[in-house]
Design goal:
- The protein starts with a strand and ends with a helix.
- It has about 475 residues and is of the alpha/beta class.
- The chain is elongated, with a radius of gyration of 23 Å.
- The chain contains 17 helices and 15 strands.
- The strands form 2 sheets. The protein has a 9-stranded mixed sheet with strand order 3-4-5-2-1-6-7-8-9, sandwiched between helices. A 6-stranded parallel sheet has the order 12-11-10-13-14-15, with helices on both faces.
- Helix 14 links the parallel strand 14 and strand 15.
- Bound molecules: alpha-D-glucopyranose.
- The site of alpha-D-glucopyranose has 14 residues, from helix 1.
Length: about 475
């Protein structure tokens, strides 16, 4: 067993450099949590590598020079930079396919196919440039999955040493565009795989096929992806990889998400001073233009406006709750149709429902600290981070029993859990929540039980460590 395991950790986004969604939170915090693990036997030298998207924010970048990767008869230039985050080296890869598009994810599948294939292969080639070599290549989602496939085919072609491949699945339905001819252009052969035929040219399936371990971001999601309902056509294939598939729950950054110190809040509080939370509700109500009344239950949705998240189910449920005394706030951006539906809902109930269609991290924190319940009726939810943050802030989650929601929220102990992805099921759960809300003592118990949950990264990071160790023996 080596004393140090070198891990090349690839992602399309990572906080604080570039963040679009939950993947950015995880890729920003997990590598650091891994490096921080104090284990006497083994140390993890995890290094993060990201595309140098034009929207990346990074200071003090150190140029690492130029190199190139072969494509056909010619070469594609790669420019690499290095930054440091809490002592962790972070590499940025630049080149024409990355500059070709300003955003992290494009609506143009071809641009993304070019960009992420180039990125994944250039990240592998970077190792020689910096004279540091991974024992484990750890990719996240489809964007970087080609690195795991490419590192395996490299071994076949060049007899390179064994490098283990790990893929974390944050969102299985997104498998990426056809990259077959792009891979071949870079000299990466398409293997005979036991994947379904349609999947044999797609980055995520290829990566999964080549990987030594697959990690789903929650234990429940690890089981769900083996079923036709959630398996997106790969369930049969994934069943053959059962032995090497794990479910490891994401953590959250409990230092940043701490109501006792969060500078975005009007008043800080903790589990022993929950009464101070009321001031945050009052501030939130007045900021949103809602009646400032502690007795009215305030429901919140903090989410990407996406069918995955079931926000449409929540809109329908809220609409049917005409006779119930509640207030609601909806924060997020995304699908224009869902944004429009949210706007219509608040037009219908201007006194009751407020809608903020934007990304606003500060307001999100104020909502966690000031609202009473968080609605998450997701159709599927690999892990979900908002419900964990909400619990830390004494906001009680009302969630569907899917994926990580099922693993993090305990019905009637830390929140309310319902089964069917249906507005009526959500409505029943919300009404049950509102009923308990009237009973101050019971409500406080729910809040405190949620605040006591340990959602820090340490336990999960240790599970990743065990997986790495089992692969590099
Ligand atoms: C994706 C999933 C979400 C998960 C996040 C981080 O955004 O939809 O459930 O929490 O990735 O893993």
């Amino acid at each position: 067993m080596p004393k140090t395991i070198n891990v090349l950790f690839l992602a399309a986004e990572a906080d604080p450099f570039v963040k679009v969604g939950g993947l950015g939170d995880v890729a920003g915090s997990l590598p650091r949590a891994l490096r921080a693990l104090a284990d006497e036997d083994v140390k993890l030298d995890v290094r993060l590598v990201l595309p140098y998207h034009p929207v990346v924010k990074a200071d003090d970048l150190k140029p690492l020079g130029m190199f190139s990767i072969p494509r056909g008869e010619s070469e594609v230039g790669v420019e690499a930079f290095e930054s440091v985050l809490d002592g962790m080296p972070v590499y940025f890869i630049d080149g024409d396919p990355i500059r070709a598009n300003g955003s992290v994810y494009s609506l143009d599948a071809k641009l993304d196919a070019e960009k992420y294939t180039f990125f994944s292969l250039a990240a592998l080639a970077l190792q020689r440039q910096i004279n540091w070599h991974a024992d484990v290549v750890h990719a996240n989602d489809w964007h970087t999955a080609v690195s795991v496939y490419g590192s395996l085919t490299k071994r076949w072609e060049e007899g390179a040493k064994h490098v283990a491949g790990v893929i974390t699945l944050h969102n299985l339905p997104f498998m990426g565009p056809n990259v077959g001819s792009i891979l071949e252009g870079y000299g990466v052969k398409l293997a005979q795989t036991d994947l379904p035929e349609w999947a044999r040219v797609m980055p995520l399936p290829l990566g999964l096929w080549a990987s030594d371990a697959i990690v789903a971001v929650s234990p429940t999601y690890a089981k769900e992806i083996l079923t036709p309902e959630y398996g997106c056509g790969l369930d049969g294939f994934l069943q053959t990889r059962r032995e090497t598939t794990h479910g490891v729950l994401n953590g959250i950054d409990v230092t940043s998400f701490n109501p006792a110190h969060d500078s975005a809040l009007g008043v800080n509080f903790d589990i022993n001073s929950l009464e101070k939370r009321a001031a945050n509700k009052n501030l939130l109500q007045s900021r949103l233009g809602l009646r400032t009344d502690a007795e009215i239950p305030l429901l919140a949705i903090v989410s990407r406006m996406d069918v995955q998240k079931g926000v449409d189910l929540a809109f329908t449920a809220l609409k049917s709750m005409k006779s119930v005394n509640f207030q609601a706030v909806i924060l997020g951006t995304g699908d224009p149709k869902l944004e429009e539906a949210a706007r219509k809902l608040s037009d219908l109930f201007p006194e009751k429902i407020k809608v903020e269609l934007r990304y606003d991290a500060g307001l999100a924190r104020q909502i966690y600290a000031g609202s009473d319940m968080l609605l998450m009726p997701s159709r599927y939810e690999p892990c979900g981070l908002s419900q964990m943050i909400a619990m830390r802030y004494g906001c009680v989650p009302i969630v569907r029993a899917a994926g990580g929601l099922n693993d993090t929220v305990k019905h009637k102990e830390t929140g309310f859990v319902f089964e069917k992805p249906h507005p009526m099921s959500l409505m029943a759960a919300a009404k049950a929540g509102i009923k308990v809300f009237q009973d101050k003592e019971k409500w406080k118990k729910l809040q405190q039980a949620g605040m006591l949950q340990d959602f820090s990264w340490e336990n999960s990071a240790r599970k990743y460590l065990e997986i790495y160790q089992s692969l590099v023996k």
